[in-house]
Design brief:
single chain, alpha+beta, 212 residues, 7 helices, four-stranded antiparallel sheet
């Protein structure tokens, strides 16, 4: 059995953590659409569509984003739901789901300091970079003290153009399983362990606008 095959058979922690989030949000979207349909059956469909167009647009966007997150965690578990789909905003959508997943566990993660970078379309089969990022943040959030949100940052290393995800207070021991899976599925990502943080270095080319 290869290392990759062995990793694929280990339940993915991010999948277990995010599935309840995805299902809950999809249920909410389905309920809104069911309510909308019931109102339309009462008459005045044209007026209703005009008045509630914003709600419908927001629901459509939510379902679109959740479809990507579901495809990412399914791919990590061995099912290719993503196929040829590529989403530039996948990193932001994944982090949003991760933060919701950690809230369900009574944990908090700092909001991003600014807009997250867009994913490059040709990297990591469309899912590996978002999955690796989400897995590391989710695991570090679970390992962080309950009374303090996980502090993290994503910066560009001017020396080589790498994007560096820094997870403050995380340890290699605390993130052993997700880091092993990341090394297996995305070996070009380097893991650097310091006394006060774990850093993941995504090489140039993983994100739009970065030099390969």
């Amino acid at each position: 059995m290869t290392a990759s095959e062995s990793t694929q058979r280990v339940p993915d922690a991010l999948t277990a953590g995010l599935m309840p989030v995805v299902i809950h949000r999809l249920n909410n979207a389905t309920q809104l659409l069911a309510n909308f349909q019931a109102l339309m059956q009462l008459g005045g469909a044209d007026d209703l569509l005009r008045d509630r167009a914003g709600d419908l647009a927001e629901t459509a966007e939510t379902v679109h984003e959740l479809g990507y997150v579901l495809a990412v965690i399914a791919a990590a578990s061995g099912a290719d739901l993503l196929r040829d789909r590529r989403e530039a905003r996948g990193l932001a959508w994944t982090l949003d789901a991760v933060r919701d997943g950690l809230r369900r566990e009574g944990r908090e993660v700092d909001a991003p300091a600014g807009p997250l970078p867009d994913l490059a379309p040709g990297t990591g089969d469309g899912w590996r970079v978002a999955w690796a990022f989400g897995s590391a943040v989710y695991a570090a959030g679970l390992a962080a003290p309950v009374d303090a949100p996980l502090s993290w940052s994503l910066r560009v290393d001017d020396a080589d153009g790498a994007r560096v995800l820094r997870l403050a207070g995380a340890t290699e021991r605390g993130l052993a399983d997700p880091l092993a899976a990341i090394r297996d599925r995305l070996p070009e990502v380097a893991v650097v362990v310091a006394d006060d943080a774990v850093e993941l270095r995504f090489p140039g080319g993983c994100f739009r606008g970065d030099a390969a």
